[in-house]
Amino acid sequence: MDTGLVAPCKRSATAREIWGVTCIPLPISVTPVPDELLSGWLSRLAASNHCEVADLLAHIGIDAKYAAALDFDLDMLAADRISVAARFDPAFVSSMTFAAMPEAEMRLTAQVPFQACTSCADGGLELRHWRRAWAFDCQICGARLLPKADRQNGAAVSEKLVDRARRGARILERVAVSGSARQLRRAMRAVTFAMGLKALCGDPFFALQSPRPNIRLFCLAAIASAQSRPLVKAALCSMDIDVYARVALLRAYDKEPRLLATVDQIAQRMRLRVGGSATSSQI
After folding, report:
1. Alpha helices in the chain, H assignment, sequence order
2. Is the model's pTM score more than 0.90?
3. Burial of residue 36, with CB atoms counted within 10 A of its CB: 0-12 exposed, 13-18 middle, 19 or more buried
4. 38-51: pLDDT as tens digits
């Protein structure tokens, strides 16, 4: 990974006092790459200066316990101190964080890293789009992103499942960008149904960030499948229903009882149709 792709204007190498703390520029500065996340850049910056991130932050008067929160809540004081130490403009430092986002987009953005690109993650690199629940392929090299816990070669999964999950990820991205509450409900209803089929509990937004690759892929694939006649597909699942599938239906349509009733009606008509066809064939 070439780390010299971005070259923003560097600031003066002289020390500055900021709110009672004298901030001294570090001996070595590291140029960020496009879309790099602040926490990843700080890790690379610390490694280049032969220290830990906690030591680097202490050097500029920032409490290390806030290190993980800087990606989402970087105030101007902290940005200014980091800019002096790294010799970059504070506005550029702030641009490496997640700015204020709508609630849905925030819930689809992981607070902690859950996936990465095996080709680009060497040297502590971490890109902002890797934190998005809809991110599926690396925007730098095009390789499929893999869970942090499974970054060797990836677990053996069906290519058909991967392709369908990739389509679901693209749909989820369009939904997140559009801000459509109706489309988001539809997508998350599909994820909830998929979780029920897998006997999983919890928040469907977190399921899309699962470190277990099969769970995340299954949930993304469910979003793709739900785009075409979702009620009919739910009814087909309910025809040979077991307890897990029924619980999945109840969870998916928990706040929409009219849709659940419609699913049951479609399933009942399908059973009658199948029963009628079987009787006719026997005659």
Report:
1. 38-48, 53-59, 76-86, 90-95, 103-107, 159-178, 181-197, 204-207, 213-225, 230-239, 243-252, 257-282
2. no
3. buried
4. 999 999 999 999 99
